[in-house]
Amino acid sequence: xxxxxxxxxxSKLILTLRKASxxx
Length: 24
Known about the structure:
rod-shaped
């Protein structure tokens, strides 16, 4: 379950990074 949380957090971080790169 801990691994699942880590994956979710990482995916959210990737999504925010993609949005930031698109904005820039």
